[in-house]
């Protein structure tokens, strides 16, 4: 595998670039500085909100493209490249279905804040990590901003207890398992793959010049748009089935190992 022609690198955050403590390694930041020397465009793509992603990547946020809310929002140097919020009528449809599901805890995700009506202690604990800028509300009528994504939390398993009830929405919306406890719902075009295609078009980059890393089902469209698609060792079986390659897990520097190979191949190309 020769990675010397790579011009665009895209990585998911949780379960991929971040370790199980939700940390970005110092090794990654060292490798990133070397990638910049080769004019490689770097994209962080996550189900996390924009403000949650920048807090993890504060020192390099002005040097990368951030694709937040599973592709609903893409920002580069404070410039919005892509914005695909849920339409008002569609949000009402989603809320009607969500309200019929027992033990589903919805989080309404906007660019600057998350809104939640649940008082689940487990959920509020997780919000401090994933959506630290959140507000507990009594009614969705309190939300005045555009909602990019409705994230549904289940304390045991979203795949088992939430997904079967929201599958009915799949013909009109993007419905994705994004982690063990989460199912995300957004506009059908609001996915990481659409965001990556827009970036590829903007910079005239092909799929064969694109490398991507992912671990969960909300990464599928993104991986489909990269010839060098890598599933993490800890990835969901669906992701392993569609990715062309695999790397080690997120606690064993799986992303960094491939980035090191990119740099070795780039240097070999220069010296030959």
UniProtKB/TrEMBL annotation:
It comes from the Bacteria. PROSITE patterns: COF_1. GO terms for molecular function: magnesium ion binding; phosphatase activity. One of its GO terms (cellular component) is cytosol. Pfam families: Hydrolase_3. PANTHER family: 5-AMINO-6-(5-PHOSPHO-D-RIBITYLAMINO)URACIL PHOSPHATASE YBJI-RELATED, PHOSPHOSERINE PHOSPHATASE. This is Sugar-phosphatase. It comes from Hyunsoonleella jejuensis. The lineage of its organism: Bacteria, Pseudomonadati, Bacteroidota, Flavobacteriia, Flavobacteriales.
């Amino acid at each position: 595998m020769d990675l010397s022609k790579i011009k665009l690198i895209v990585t998911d955050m949780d379960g991929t670039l971040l370790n199980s403590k939700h940390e970005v390694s110092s090794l990654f930041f060292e490798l990133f500085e070397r990638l910049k020397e080769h004019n490689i465009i770097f994209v962080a793509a996550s189900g996390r909100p924009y403000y949650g992603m920048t807090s993890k990547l504060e020192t390099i946020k002005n040097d990368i493209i951030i694709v937040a809310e599973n592709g609903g929002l893409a920002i580069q140097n404070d410039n919005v490249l892509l914005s695909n919020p849920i339409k008002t009528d569609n949000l009402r449809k989603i809320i009607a279905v969500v309200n019929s599901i027992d033990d589903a805890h919805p989080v309404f995700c906007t660019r600057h804040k998350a809104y939640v009506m649940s008082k689940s202690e487990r959920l509020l604990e997780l919000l401090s990590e994933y959506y630290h800028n959140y507000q507990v509300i009594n009614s969705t009528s309190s939300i005045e901003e555009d909602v990019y994504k409705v994230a549904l939390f289940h304390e045991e398993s979203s795949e088992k207890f939430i997904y079967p009830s929201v599958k009915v929405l799949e013909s009109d919306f993007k419905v994705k398992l994004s982690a063990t406890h989460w199912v995300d719902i957004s506009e059908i075009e609001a996915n990481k793959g659409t965001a990556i295609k827009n970036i590829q078009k903007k910079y005239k980059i092909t799929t064969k010049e694109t490398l991507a890393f992912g671990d969960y089902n909300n990464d599928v469209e993104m991986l489909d748009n990269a010839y060098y698609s890598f599933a993490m060792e800890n990835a969901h079986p669906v992701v392993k089935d569609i990715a062309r390659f695999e790397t080690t897990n997120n606690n064993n520097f799986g992303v960094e190992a491939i980035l090191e190979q990119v740099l070795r191949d780039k240097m070999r190309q220069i010296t030959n």
